[in-house]
Amino acid sequence: MYKSYTSLDFREGMIKKRLERIKKIILITSGKGGVGKSTVAATMAALTAKEGMSVGLLDTDVHGPSSAFIFGIRSLPKEDRHGLLPPISNGVKVMSLDLFATGKPIPVSGKGARQIIKELLALTEWGNLDFLIVDTPPGTGDVLLTLINVLGKKAFSIVVTLPTSLSISVVRRTIELLLTSQIPIFGVLENMSYRADVGKSHSQSRGELLALEFGVKFLGELPIDYKASEAIDARDMPSLLKTDFAKTLLTLLEKSKLFNYNKTQKLNDGPIQ
Ligand SMILES: Nc1ncnc2c1ncn2[C@@H]1O[C@H](COP(=O)(O)OP(=O)(O)OP(=O)(O)O)[C@@H](O)[C@H]1O
Ligand SMILES: [Mg+2]
Q1: pTM for this one?
Q2: What is the pLDDT of residues 111-135, one digit of tens each?
Q3: Distance 44 CA to ligand 1 centre (A)
Q4: Topology of 27-263 in CATH?
Q5: Nearest atom in ligand 1 to 226's CA
Q6: Helix 244-255 vs helix 226-233: angle between axes, to the nearest 10 degrees?
């Protein structure tokens, strides 16, 4: 009698084993480009590490990876018999294609992108993690669909939008996709809502209305903070963490109970409901 295999992709077994050692997977999504997904993902990862958690950041932007840049990492990942060891910066284990591409173009098409994501998930040796934060590329194409497919059972999402009608209209479609794919949405985050040096002047934001529309939590608003973009340009994470942008993000994350919730969780206990 032949054993019947449900899948001949042997990476799937490796990925499953690695995911067993990760408590929570957060996809930072939007669908819209340039809204600050990578900035939020990197800052959130560093803030979470500062809270004493073990954190990994997986940058899945195949064409425009930016996490190694933001963290100022210039070294290639090392390898041992367990897999690729992500470099650690500011307490965060970072895996991103910009570690390998070193400024070169990455001309991959749909199928190639899907394979790269699976390879990264199969090969990266994260060890035990409290959080794996996954930075996603713009759009709802191959990469996001692969992530939903492979990580779906354990992942939940934070959705980033700008306070513009254009952003909201794109992000609305992404929320629909996530919800129909059974990815729980932990909350909607509105980035670049007001100027850090001026402060808030409005009461209800568009991001909040969007969250209400889908009955999901609104996490709050983040300021446009030129000091944050300067710190990113300087590849200076410690300075980024001192900005109003990072301080506001920390306050919103604490308010959302994201950290407390996960501290009390056991391994393998599924996504946040
Ligand atoms: N709150 C903010 N204040 C000031 N600048 C910001 C803020 N958020 C993001 N930026 C800047 O905006 C630009 C785009 O941000 P980022 O790369 O994080 O967006 P993204 O959504 O990841 O883009 P992509 O869709 O291309 O991946 C960056 O130069 C970043 O430094
Ligand atoms: Mg990005």
Answers
A1: 0.93
A2: 999 999 999 999 999 999 999 999 9
A3: 14
A4: Rossmann fold (3.40.50)
A5: 4
A6: 110
